[in-house]
Each structure stands twice: as structure tokens, then as C-alpha cells.
Amino acid sequence: MNSFVLEIWDDEGSRCTFYTVRWDGMEENETDKFFNKYDAIPGYKRSVQELLSFVLDSIGEDHGAIDVLFNRYENEVVGLPNKGKARVGEIVFLYSNFPLRLYALRINNRKDLVVLFNGGLKTAQTNQESKDLNLKWIEACQFAKRIDEALRDKEILIDTKNRKILSAYNDDEILL
Amino acid sequence: MRSKVARRIQDETPEEVRIFVRQYTDIVVRINNILQAKGYTQKDLAERMNKKPSEINKWLKGNHNLTLKTIAKLEAELGEPIIETSFPPIAV
Asked: Which element (helix H / strand E) includes A19?
């Protein structure tokens, strides 16, 4: 896997800081690519706005990355928006037919640190069958594995007080 | 800091969309908290309400199906408030 930079995407919410990934040498991060791409398609503009509000308002500001909003596990990553199956039951509530998926990783299952990746259009029942989405899902899983590995090997550290991810080598940029 | 792309899209987002998403998520989180606290499953709830589980499922899925009538039924059955309507004084 090529190197990538782990950088802040949004830290203005009161409950959760969002990170994103950017391929080393590229200007645009993966999450901006996703939002830019689908925002430019008139048919998906409203869905993009709803998803962004779900991320920044509901998770970032109101609730944090709580279990009930982070339960659409697909291997290493979670697809947002959540499908909303309550742990105690099978209640399906939110955005069950939502056309977009944005992949995310909750750092150490914390409610206040999330990495957002890229995503795509869910056109079939599974990721594998959704042509547009499958590559982004595989890529997100690879990013997530590398981030998990960096956490395990203490290449990166969690600053719990400031809701931040830090380089263990005190570098300004986190290159993985 | 906030991504410039996120800020631009957020600025273009109609206020009603943000209000809808936030309120919908709040309601859903509240319903789940009550179900978890009381240990109810969808099946339990359906039985208590004398409905088919698929009907309960239908109420709670999709992003426009959770009507006030549904919420009232759920409040009545769960015995807990789901939405509260206490407001600050109206600014004039």
C-alpha cells in the first residue's frame, strides 16, 4: 500500500473529531473527493446534504460516535449512515434505502475520534455487487488496517484530552 | 478547522434538512435507548402492540415514515416520552 497522510477533516464539533486520509503527494483528501463527487450530481445533492448533516451535526455535535449510530460494520470499517439495528432487537430505522455510503473507522471504539474515508453509491445488496462502491470499500479497509496497525505499534498515539491523534515521532504530519 | 468542502456544502444545505436529520437522529437514538433500557426486541414490541413485527419494522424504517402518530403509539407502549415539546419564550 502506498503512503498516506492522516489529517484532521473537522474538529469543530463538541463531541467528535473527524480525521481523513490523503494519498501522499495528492492535494485532495479522500473524504472531500467523496463529497465533491456526489454533490456535483444533482440527483444526489440532497443525500449528500443529509449525510453531511448526519456526520457533522448528529455525530460531531449532538451524540458523538455512539454504538447505535455506528453499527453497519463491513469488515474493518463502518458504512455511514447507519442502518440502525438496535443491539437488543432488529429495529431498522434510519435511511434504510439511502443511496450513498461513506466509510468510517472509529478509533479504538472511542466516541470522540473517527476517521472518514471515501465511499460511493450503493446500487446492490452487498458492497461486492455495488460496482462503484466495492473498490472504495476495499481501499477503506486497507486504510483502516494500516491505521489500526500504527496504533498497535504505537507509531501514532491518542491525545485523549484534546481529542487528537499524534505522531509518536512528534512530526507535524502523520505519514503512514 | 473544518474541511472547506464540508463548509461549502453545509452552507448550501437548507436549514430544514439539518433540522430534519438532527431531530430524526435524536428520536431514533431515544427510541433505541428506551428499548435497550427496557430490554425489548422488535418482536416483544410487536407482541405488546398486537402487531406484526414487519409492521413495526415498517414504521421505523425509511427516512420519512416515522409519523407523529407512530411516535405517539410508541410513547404509549413504551411508557416513556420520545419527543418533548417544551419551548423557551418566543423572541419578539
From this structure: strand A17-23
- Using CA coordinates, name the residue in chain B closest to A61: B22
How many Å separate Cα A103 from the centre of its chain? 4
Q: Are strands A174-175 and A164-167 parallel, antiparallel or unpaired?
A: unpaired
- What is the complex's ipTM, to 2 decimals? 0.86
DSSP conformation letters of A64-76: -S-GGGS--EETT
For the beta carbon of residue B48, count every other beta carbon within 10 angstroms. 12
Q: How many CB pairs under 8 A join A and B?
A: 123
For residue A97, list chain B residues with Cβ-Cβ distance below 8 A: 62-63
* The CATH number of the domain covering residues in B4-78: 1.10.260
Segment B2-46, tens digit of pLDDT: 999 999 999 999 999 999 889 888 888 888 788 888 888 767 877
Give CA–CA dist A161/A150, Å, rounded: 20
Q: Provide the domain limits for residue A20.
A: 4-175
Model confidence, pTM: 0.86
- B-chain CB neighbours of A69 within 8 Å are 25, 29
Q: Which of B4, B22, B41 sits opposite A90 (nearest CB)?
A: B41
- 3-class DSSP state of A16: coil
